[in-house]
Model the fold of this input.
Amino acid sequence: MKLKAIGVIVAAATAAVALTSCSGGGGSSSSTVQYWLWDANQLPAYQQCATDFQKANPGTTIKITQLGWDDYWTKLNNAMAAGNAPDVFTDHLAKYPDFIKTKQLLSLDDLKVDYSAYNEGLADLWVGPDGKRYGTPKDWDTVAIYYNKKMATDAGLTEDQMNHLTWNPDDGGTYGQAIAKLTVDKNGKHGDEPGFDKNNVAVYGFGLNQSGGGTGQVQWSFLTATTGWTHTDKNPWGTHYNYDDPRFQKTIAWWAGLVDKGYMAKLETTVGSNAADTFGAGKSAINVNGDWMLGQFSSYKGIDLGIAPTPVGPNGKSMSMFNGLADSIWAGTKNPEGSKKWVTYLASAACQDVVGTKGVVFPATKSGTDKAMAAFKAKGLDVSAFTSHVTDKTTFLFPITDNAAKIDGIMTPAMDAVVSGQAKASSLTAANDQVNALFKK
Done:
């Protein structure tokens, strides 16, 4: 999903699940539809959708291939270049503008889909600047704070306090205080206690999940949004980025400063590691992440999991980026009719309700979301920290613009430099100039 984001959101091992004996990428026979996705956690639900679809459409076979996030995009782009991409694939808001530009997507304007069945705003995200539709929404996501309840109790923090954290870029508010309290050095000293050794930390208050590049979905965007800052001049399809804004740079300076205080691990020590697994191993107390990670965070043995809203910032609100995946059809498909039937089914209540009952993600349809909420409740998970953003309308969109890959190529090393202490937040002004130059070519 994500980003459904952009850092590694799903670190699934490469795998392929064949619902038929056929193999290969695109170029499938007229009776086969190749479908790619990256989230291993969602694979069982879509296997069920494929099985149900095949029963209703005898003679058409769905072959599903699941790949990890990084491999997924590399192999998809290579397959498109080679002319053998999958007929249908899970698409991301950060990627599809470039796919439109390179004419890799089939218009879906002729599909018979009831877009009123979707949660508000999701369907509009997949209409390109030319007014044509290039994706049918499959799910949505927001972010929240995953935290270790025992660690919070040991630090003197109550559940009510964790559910009502505040933040500001000057002193970090109670959110910054909580991160300090939850940090523990190897001598048992907490981050807010005299004698705390920031160079020998046993448990970090905040679990670093990369620098966030230019989007910061699960790293810092929920903070910057509370200052009134926005990624672009308009969204979707903005043409000017705002990384030079003092509000943005002040927020990043505070966040990156957690490393120097010893409250967040150094960036170089996190390379090759997984922030969620670090949390599961008891090495970090707080990890901000998306609802698509509910299954993983709730699976760690010995962890009493708490889920709290993102902190309330200067605007008086708890904010979250709102992202949504979709299913798109490759323009080079040799089976456009079969692909359209499959995408129409993926967009229907018949499939989205199945996905919802698995309790892994929130499907795009309202009925699917209701079933997901019931499934999470049955698992003993209170997901209101995620859903409240939608009901309270405290979301902002993932930035949808052209040049996403090039922007990431500029902003990721620029943000890495700031978080690793090699550059100040003010250096992001130069990076911003490079980004905006892309739109003047």
In short: The two ends are 31 Å apart (CA to CA).
